[in-house]
Amino acid sequence: MDALLDAALAGETRTIVVVGTAKNVGKTVAFNALRALAARRGLVGAITSIGRDGEAADALDGAEKPRVRVEAGTLVALPRELVPRTPALEIVDIGEASALGRIVFARARYGATCEIGGPPTARAVRATIDRLAELTTGPVFVDGAIDRIAPLAGGRREAIVLATGAASGANVAAVAEIARSTVARLTLPGRDPQHERGRVVTIAGALDARVAQDLLASVSGTTVVVTDPTRIAIRGRLFDALLAAVDLRCERPLHVVACTSSSVGPGRALDPRELVRAVAAATRLPTFDVVAGLAA
């Protein structure tokens, strides 16, 4: 599994963000696995979440969820209301506002289990991650949310790992297809004036189904530019049709480096070896099953 951390830390990366294609696809399991790999190398860094993670049970369905354990020396950013009542965490700074109180930056004096969360706005998410990077010399690990990673676009200091699994599809082929489509959307190339087709159409807001249909009807063969990949609100066949018809690019690209696959989901279990191979083939990214210890 060391190759997963190697892929995430290649180049100029300081921040590793794990996002999922759906709920219960092993996002937090992958997040914890990456941190464990780093710890074995002596890399003590920082952690936070774009949403809310590490709770014992899901707030919606009560299902058991993986916990987040903060090891000694780790810096953690979490809302004030989630700070555990333990001397394990030493507060070193106060940050942005959130629905659960201001973001607290704390260093673990010894191991503790806690929930983690982040602020609600893109600007505050960016500020929180930047402050963590200032307070530690190690990597910053973020348990992410795929619809809230716009603040990470535009640079190569943040690497994105996409978690997918049996919870997102009924069979191996369906899971792999969802992973392929998601990676295609998240890895839109940056704008390149030297290779633009004809006139350039810039989409200021979201590229939704109505906008996509208008583009297909009127600007086939041209270059279409969105702000960043999170502005793409279409999926499946419509997205593939648009991708084939126009040169779709973005002003601020994302940096997706690897996938993880989870073969077990609510009510189903897939073959782990078949799944990891299928996701790797579909996405053309290195893919890892951190529970079964498989890679493709």
What brief labels describe this structure?
single chain; 26% strand; 10-stranded mixed sheet; 296 residues; 2 domains; Rossmann fold; 19 strands; 3-stranded parallel sheet; alpha/beta; 28% helix
CATH class of the largest domain: Alpha Beta
Instruction: Tally the helices.
Output: 7
The beta-strand count equals 19
CATH architecture of the largest domain: 3-Layer(aba) Sandwich
Relative strand content: 25-35%
Decide which structural class fits the backbone: alpha/beta
Termini separation comes to 11 Å
Structure overview:
By secondary structure, this protein is an alpha/beta fold. It has two domains: 2-183 and 254-295, Rossmann fold; 191-250, no CATH class. The chain contains seven helices and 19 strands. The protein has helices spanning 2-9, 27-40, 122-135, 172-186, 209-218, 236-245, 272-283, and strands at 15-20, 46-49, 52-53, 68-70, 75-79, 89-94, 103-108, 112-114, 116-117, 140-143, 158-165, 200-203, 223-226, 247-250, 256-262, 264-265, 268-269, 287-289, 294-295. The strands form five sheets. A ten-stranded mixed beta sheet has the order 6-7-5-2-10-1-11-15-18-19, sandwiched between helices. Strands 12-13-14 form a three-stranded parallel beta sheet, with helices on one face. A two-stranded antiparallel ribbon has the order 3-9. Strand 18 and strand 19 (294-295) form a beta hairpin. Helix 4 (172-186) runs parallel beside helix 7 and helix 5 (209-218) runs parallel beside helix 6. The longest helix is centred in the middle third of the chain and has 15 residues, at 172-186. The radius of gyration is 19 Å and the shape is globular.
